[in-house]
Amino acid sequence: MLALVFPHLPTDRIARRLWGLSWRSKGRPEHHPPILCAGRRENAMRLTALDEVSERLGLKRGQGLAEARAMFPKIDVVDEDGAADQGLLEAIADWCDRYTPLVALDGREGLFLDITGCTHLFGGEEALLKDILGRLLQMGFDVKGAISSSPGLSWAACRFGRGGVIADQVTEAVLAPLPVNALRIDEATIAALYKLGLKRIGDLLPMPRAPLARRFGIHLLLRLDQALGHNEEAISPRRPVAALSAERRLAEPIQAEEHILQLAGQIAISLKSELEARGVGGRVFELVLFRVDGRVFRIAAGASQPLQDPKRISSLFSERLNAVHDDLDAGFGFELLRLNVLQHDVFRISQGDFTGNGDSEISLADFIDRVSARLGADCLQIADPKQSHMPERAEIFVPAIAARIVREETRELSAFVPRSDRPLRLFRHPELVEAFAATVPDGPPRRFRWRRIVHEVIRAEGPERISPEWWHDEEDVEERDYFRLESEAGRRFWIFRAGHYVAGKAAPTWRVHGIFA
């Protein structure tokens, strides 16, 4: 487990904006005042972030701004921006994906990286830690890191110790001289431990556990066991881990879109064998582009059916790159490309017949994929059945790229089979009509006025009673009696009566819900 901490992240963000990304390697400008961030705390302006120069001057976090200005009138104070700091930390987490897909945020100034099984790709743990710290330093960040077998030990070593790679045999020796603050416990427990003279973790190790639990709670022992590696602690990655992934590291950065697509096709070829071995095809793909300066671009593309063909996968990203052309800034080029399979499904191999039906099916799916990739998944929609006996709820519009899955899932439900007695056109909202000479209590009207035109009824079928869905509708929703009516002009309507004729109450209303061909 690799833990990283950025003790001066807010001020590093400001310094990178003022002096460039490589300001640490070049050195800060001479005679420039220290950089501080201030924000309102408890109805007072206080210092929230300091750079190294401010710390050497003796300033402290939480100190009042007026007091700091009285001590050093020429200090440069900037308003804190928590959203910008959080965005920068997430951008660094995206950049760390090149080392492992399991990256988790740790508060406002730290990261956890689960590097299990990844270190051999970089020459071992020492080489990996040296590489990541050196790269982040070149990008203008003050960073410390530690690698151990537990998140608690790595966290404590990088913040309160020397960091580096810690072997399991020296866990207690590394923890013993560290303050109890390194156990990630609350301030009240720390203050209580200090009152008893227990200031170092080494003071707690030889003590009996039962009195510690009674006096300070079980949480103290839990944190101690996590730091020692006796109790496992899981981290929560900020992004789901891809089912399949392949990448290509480049000796020379690339910028042109045609080169990106060419490499994406080559990476897709390397994924094909693994997809075939599992008998699956990709449904959602993600192309991750790592720029030289550390910025990461993620481009996702979906398919209407499982894909294994590298050419079709590459064509998806051809449309996506055209759609995001203005937002994709290549800068000085991309040095690493990765293709992830985020979702996959069973791949059914079908043999085309002599009529060409197989080719037409492929061409339709390819059309849906290309248009959805260019204009978005919601640009093409199709009506699919939904489990409901209310007519306006029996269908739902879903993206065409996902319609195949919906159709396969609903094919097994007999309640979803479309009924032949439903109108070809169903109105989104039933329209009010004025009915005349309706047969009481359950008969159809003999004529009705709709959209200022009176229609004489010559044939009628019904009623078909549909009760409201009690799990969706309110208690005052009326039952509906539907009729299929044919007028003298040959037009056929589907109308309903909401409620029933009851003596002493207002007559129920009639509405037209759809029309037949």
Structural class: alpha+beta
Helix amount, in percent? 25-40%
Detail the poorly predicted runs: 408-418
Output the radius of gyration.
34 Å
Strand content: 25-35%
Report the major sheet.
Answer: 6 strands, antiparallel, barrel
Report the total helices. Answer: 16
Number of E-type strands? 20
What is the arithmetic mean of pLDDT? 87
Gross geometry: elongated
Topology:
Blueprint: E1 2-5, H1 9-19, H2 23-26, E2 35-41, E3 44-50, H3 52-56, H4 65-71, E4 76-79, H5 82-95, E5 103-106, E6 110-113, H6 125-138, E7 144-147, H7 151-160, E8 164-165, H8 171-175, H9 187-195, H10 201-204, H11 209-216, H12 218-228, E9 244-254, H13 257-278, E10 280-291, E11 296-307, H14 310-323, E12 334-346, H15 357-375, E13 381-385, E14 395-399, H16 400-410, E15 425-436, E16 447-450, E17 453-466, E18 480-487, E19 492-498, E20 509-515
Parallel strand pairs: 2-4, 7-8
Antiparallel strand pairs: 1-6, 1-7, 2-3, 5-6, 9-12, 10-11, 10-12, 13-14, 15-16, 15-20, 16-17, 17-18, 18-19, 19-20
Helix pairs in contact: 7-12, 11-12, 13-14, 14-15
What does this structure look like?
With 517 residues, the protein is α+β, with helices and mostly antiparallel strands. It is built from 16 helices and 20 strands. A six-stranded antiparallel barrel has the order 15-16-17-18-19-20. A five-stranded mixed beta sheet has the order 5-6-1-7-8, sandwiched between helices. Strands 9-12-10-11 form a four-stranded antiparallel beta sheet, with helices on both faces. The protein is elongated.
